[in-house]
């Protein structure tokens, strides 16, 4: 399960553009399912333009962490502020946060009965009240950005996994989010499709998008991440810039993990 690094070597490090402003702040966030604690005092601050990669064994709380950031999951303790909006304070804030945060899942989660174009137009029209013509123009712009405008009239099932995942990225971008969350976006893909999705994500990074990516694509982490986080048993056990993270892991659990993945 954790040996999913495709070994794709990325040929260049993607340059930095990290601002001073904190756009995601998690303070001592804890979460339980029943009596089982799945997040334990998570502290995480992400600055504008920063790219964070989260890795760790299955069940360590990676998905839960990023799902708490856009309130797909409630949490019981601590505080999360996203783009200046306090997630805990008021349920009405959830909508504002979701508009600011785009999310891409392992299973692309496209609506099967809608065309690619309609998938991309739906949220802007429903959530934002954007008119049809404008929503379509925006959708085509982002489908071009992920290099599949020619598939706009097709249905998801007519596309490859890599193409569907690029549609999912375009769909998220249509809401013009300031932050993008990725939860193992390449894990469900056949190996030959991993690179096209990683390339799309690298393109976003180059444009200065703030990104939190759960992935075991260590080549991506090396090339793109400002910081790599290792989670285990609901905690952030270690975090460091990629060189240090991979060359000089301090915690025994991280050394074991890297031994399995690399
Ligand atoms: P990861 O993404 O690192 O694999 P998750 O965040 O999905 O881990 O899960 C963390 C822990 O929470 C795991 O032990 C998992 O079994 C548990 N968990 C996740 N979702 C639920 C749920 N809906 N109900 C109960 N337990 C859950
Ligand atoms: Mg997960």
UniProtKB/TrEMBL annotation:
SUPFAM superfamilies: P-loop containing nucleoside triphosphate hydrolases
The UniProt record lists the keyword Cell membrane: yes
Source domain of life: Bacteria
InterPro entries per record: AAA+_ATPase, ABC_ATPase_HisP-typ, ABC_transporter-like_ATP-bd, ABC_transporter-like_CS, MetN_ABC_transporter-like, P-loop_NTPase
Pfam families per the UniProt record, alphabetical: ABC_tran
Gene3D superfamilies with a match to the protein in the record: P-loop containing nucleotide triphosphate hydrolases
Gene Ontology molecular-function annotations: ABC-type amino acid transporter activity; ATP binding; ATP hydrolysis activity
Keyword Cell membrane among UniProt keywords: yes
Keywords, ordered alphabetically: ATP-binding, Cell membrane, Membrane, Nucleotide-binding, Transport
UniProt domain ABC transporter: residue ranges: 24-258
Family: Belongs to the ABC transporter superfamily.
Protein name: Amino acid ABC transporter ATP-binding protein
